[in-house]
Design goal:
- The complex is a heterodimer of chains A (about 100) and B (about 290).
- Chain A is an alpha+beta fold and about 100 residues long.
- Chain A has helices spanning about 5, 10-20, 25-35, 45-55, 80-104; strands at about 25, 60-65, 70-75.
- Chain B is elongated, with a radius of gyration of 25 Å.
- In chain B, helix 3 packs parallel to helix 5 (about 145-175).
- Chain B is mostly helical and about 290 residues long.
- The longest helix of chain B is centred in the N-terminal third of the chain and has 41 residues, at about 50-90.
- Chain B contains nine helices and no strands.
- The chains are: A alpha+beta (about 100), B mainly alpha (about 290).
- The interface of A and B includes residues 24, 48 and 56 of A.
Chain lengths: ~100, ~290
C-alpha cells in the first residue's frame, strides 16, 4: 500500500499500536508492518514526526530509557490518547460500513 | 555522509531548536541500530528521504509553535487587562481623585494616558485575531508559511501594544507618587510590574516559536477569513476603516457622555477614538491581515 494512502490514518494506526502497551519507534514501525501483513510499508522516518505531533497534542507520553548503551524513547498512550483512539475507531467503522455498502 | 548526518544537517537548516533536534537524532540513531541488529542495515531507504522528513517535522513544529506562541501572548495580555482594570477600578476607592493631569509632571502623565488608552485597544484587536486564528486552525497539522507569518505578526503587534500599556500604567503610577496614597501606588505598581513580567515571559515563547523555518505553501488568509460576517468588506479597506472608526467613535461618545455626564467630553473622547482607530488601521492593518 502506498504511503500516500495512509495519510490521515497514520495517527490512528500509531495510537492503536500503542494500545497494546508502551513501545519505541522501531517497535511501532515493526508492529504496523506485521499487523498489516506487510501492507503498511510506509517510510518509517515519517513515524517520528507523527509521534512528536501526538505527544504535543497530549495523546501519547514518552520517556527515555537506555538499551544496550543507546538512548531509547519509549511511547505510551495517555488517557486522552485512549479516548481519541476510541473516537477514531468509531469513525472508521462508520466510514468502512458506508464504503462497503456502496462498493459491495 | 550518512543518512543520520544528512538528516541532522537538514534539521539545522530548518533551525529546529536544539532539544528537539537532539531528541529526533537520538531516536533515529536507535531506529537505525535496531535495523542493523536485525540484518536490515542496508535498507536505510525505508526511513525515507532525510530532507522530506526534516521538512515535515519543521512544518508541523513551526505550525504548532506559532499557535502556542499566539495563545501565550493572549494569556499574558489577559493578565495585563486584569492588572489595568484593577488599578483603574481601585482609583474609585480613593476619597478624591485629582485628575490624570494633576500628578508629578505632565511629561509623565500625557504619554502614560495615551499608552493606557491606545495600547489596550491595539492589543485587544491584534491579540484576539492571533488567538482566534490559532484556535480556529488548531486541528490543522501544517499551516502555510504565510499564515504562520501572519499569526506571528499579529502576536508581535499585540505583545508590543501590551508592553506599551503596562509601561504606560507604570508611568501613570510613578506620576502620582506623593499625590495618591501609598497603598494605591504599591497596588498599581505591583500590578503593572507583574503584567510586564507576564508579557516578557510570553515574548520568550513567541521568540522561541519564531525560530523554526517553515516552507509549506498556501495563502495567509486575512481578517475576512477569521470573521466571515465582514466578507462583504473585503477589498474595501476605506469602508472598513470608516465604518470601524464611526462605530467605535459613537460607542465611546455615548459611554463617556454617560460616565462623565458631559456631551462635550463624550464627543472629545469619541473623536479621539475614531482618529486613533483610523491611524491604527492605516499603520497596522496590513500587518495584521485587515487589508491587503
Amino acid at each position: 500500500m502506498r504511503a500516500e494512502a495512509l495519510k490521515g490514518h497514520l495517527d490512528g494506526l500509531i495510537l492503536a499500536t500503542l494500545a497494546d502497551g508502551p513501545a519505541h519507534g522501531y517497535a511501532i514501525a515493526h508492529a504496523l508492518r506485521e499487523r498489516s501483513a506487510g501492507a503498511f510499508d510506509l517510510p518509517e522516518g515519517t513515524l517520528y514526526p507523527a509521534l512528536h505531533r501526538l505527544e504535543r497534542a497530549g495523546l501519547v507520553a514518552s520517556e527515555w530509557s537506555t538499551q544496550a548503551g543507546r538512548r531509547r524513547r519509549t511511547y505510551q498512550l495517555t488517557r486522552s490518547g485512549g479516548s481519541a483512539l476510541n473516537e477514531r475507531r468509531s469513525e472508521w467503522r462508520l466510514f468502512a460500513t458506508a464504503v462497503e455498502a456502496v462498493l459491495a | 555522509m550518512s543518512w543520520l548526518e544528512e538528516f541532522e544537517q537538514e534539521l539545522q537548516a530548518r533551525r529546529i531548536r536544539p532539544d528537539a533536534r537532539d531528541r529526533l537524532v537520538a531516536e533515529f540513531a536507535d531506529h537505525i541500530a535496531c535495523e542493523q541488529g536485525t540484518g536490515m542495515g542496508g535498507e536505510l531507504t525505508r526511513l525515507g528521504v532525510a530532507r522530506e522528513i526534516a521538512g515535515q517535522y519543521a512544518d508541523e513544529l513551526g505550525s504548532d509553535d506559532a499557535r502556542r506562541g499566539a495563545l501565550a501572548v493572549f494569556a499574558a495580555l489577559a493578565l495585563a487587562a486584569v492588572a489595568l482594570a484593577a488599578s483603574q477600578l481601585s482609583l474609585g476607592q480613593l476619597s478624591r481623585y485629582p485628575g490624570f493631569d494633576h500628578g508629578f509632571s505632565v511629561a509623565l502623565s500625557l504619554p502614560a494616558i495615551v499608552a493606557i488608552l491606545v495600547g489596550p485597544q491595539i492589543a485587544l484587536v491584534a491579540g484576539t485575531l492571533a488567538a482566534w486564528r490559532a484556535l480556529r486552525r488548531r486541528r490543522v497539522a501544517v499551516l502555510p508559511a504565510a499564515e504562520i507569518a501572519l499569526v506571528r505578526a499579529r502576536a508581535r503587534v499585540a505583545l508590543a501594544a501590551g508592553l506599551v500599556t503596562t509601561t504606560g500604567l507604570l508611568l501613570y503610577t510613578v506620576n502620582f507618587i506623593g499625590v495618591l496614597p501609598a497603598w494605591w501606588l504599591a497596588l498599581s505598581g505591583t500590578l503593572a510590574a507583574g503584567a510586564t513580567a507576564a508579557l516578557v515571559a510570553a515574548r520568550g515563547a513567541l521568540v522561541r516559536s519564531s525560530a523554526t523555518v517553515v516552507a509549506s505553501a498556501g495563502p495567509a488568509g486575512d481578517l475576512f477569513d477569521d470573521i466571515p460576517a465582514l466578507r462583504w468588506l473585503r477589498g474595501r479597506p476605506l469602508a472598513l476603516c470608516v465604518g470601524g472608526a464611526l462605530l467605535s467613535g459613537v460607542v465611546v461618545t455615548i459611554a463617556e457622555w454617560h460616565a462623565e455626564r458631559s456631551l462635550a467630553e463624550g464627543l472629545q473622547r469619541g473623536v479621539f477614538e475614531a482618529l486613533a482607530l483610523s491611524i491604527g488601521f492605516a499603520a497596522l492593518g496590513r500587518l495584521i491581515g485587515a487589508r491587503r
